[in-house]
Every structure is written in structure tokens, then in C-alpha cells.
Fold this protein.
Amino acid sequence: MEIRVLGPLCGVVNGGSVVPSAGKPRQVFALLALYPGRVLPVSMLMEEVWRAELPPSAMTTLQTYIMQLRRCLGGALGAGGSERAKGVLATRHGGYVLQVPRESVDVFAYERLVGEGQEAFERGEDERAARCFRQALGLWQGPALVDVRLGPVMEIEVMRLEESRLVTVERRIDADLRLGRHGELIAELADLIARHPQHEGLHAQAMLSLYRSGRQASALDVYRRLRARLIEELGVEPSPPLQRLHQAMLAVDPELDVVAGPRRGSTFDRYAA
């Protein structure tokens, strides 16, 4: 089975979809897919589907959803599919478990690649780090579970995944900056800071990419606009690391021209101390 949650929900067995079209069964399948091999209590599944407003028939209705999911699985599994489906989507004491390998769900392949990229990044293997991060980000086909109604459990999980995605983008850009690809990053970073107007790490990267491309005035303007926004919206100044980066650019600090080397932190962390 191949399951994708990093974008629209997709589950395929032998080329056939096993994802039901009805909203609440899709919700149950998505939650089970996020925790393959783990027994999810009936109470968790009910909370996800109905939050705190459980209908009197909640247990019976949940069992119906499980039957619908097994029917989808059985149809795709072929001969003997009905019985085999009970082994894939198994009943356990107090709950249900989707018994598929973790690697069959894209989120776990994503997290493995991110981990490999982070290890390479910390060792200064920037080319490998950038490659791993790109492969990880390439698994995303849109916002996580974009076509699934989210309850309280999956809302937290999706928030975690989206934050991880942004951090991975930031680390990939750090690796690219250390490889001297600043000119190639300017347009991407302009889009990112427009979509994340208070994200200081992305602004630091945008400043550095512009500065290294001979556009000091534009780099300083990125800082000026961010500072004005932070003061107007939050009543705070930029953080000390960003202020130090700004001062380094005003002073034309030769340290800013270092493209690669032993430094293992991010662009933003460089000025943390």
C-alpha cells in the first residue's frame, strides 16, 4: 500500500484507490494512516470525528466507517480481499490499527530524508544536505491533508507537519547559501517573506542573498520594512541576532562574504552570540 498525506489524501493498493469519498470515513482513514502500526483507541477516533459532541449512535457509526474502509481495501486487494482487509485494518482491544509499514506512508519518508539532511548539514556536507532537503520537500503535493476535514487530533499533527516543512525550507536555503547559490535564491525568498511577513529567519536569508548579490541597499530595505512591521504590529524591535546582521551589512563586514566553511549553524544563528 502507498499512502500520501503530504497534500491531498491518497491511498493506493494494486493501482486502485482505497480512500472512501465520504468525508468522515476519509477522516478516520487519514488518522489511522498518520499512526501506522499503532492501535488508536476508539475514544481518539470519536474525538477526531465528532469532537466533544458525540451522537448517541457514535460507536455504531464508527463501526460502519470501519466496515466501509475495509470494503474499499478488500476491493483493491483482489482475491480473498475481504478477509485480508481485516488483517490490514485490524480490530484490537479498545481500538483499531492500520497494519502497514511506516515507509508506505509519505510522511515517514519525508521525516527520514529531513533527518539525513540535518545530519549532513551539521557535518558541513552542504551539497548532500541540500539534496536530502530537496527530496524531502519534493514529497509535498500541497498543504498536508488539504482535502480532509480536520478534528482536534489531526489539527495538531497538520500544524506540526507544516511547521516542519517551513523549517526544512529554511535549512535547505541555508545549505544553498553556504554553497554560494545566493543569486538563485532571491526570487524564492522574496515570495517566502511575503507569505511569512514576521519570520526573522527567512528575512535574514533574504538579506544575505541580496547582499552577496551586490544589492546592499535592497538587503537593508528588507530589514527596514521588517522592523517597521514589527514595531507597528507587535510593538517590538527585531531580535538581537537580526540587528547584528544589519549592523554587519552597514559595516560591510567581510565575514558576510564567507560562502562555505566550518560554520554549521543557520544564517540567523550566526549572529546569535
Summary: The two ends are 48 Å apart (CA to CA).
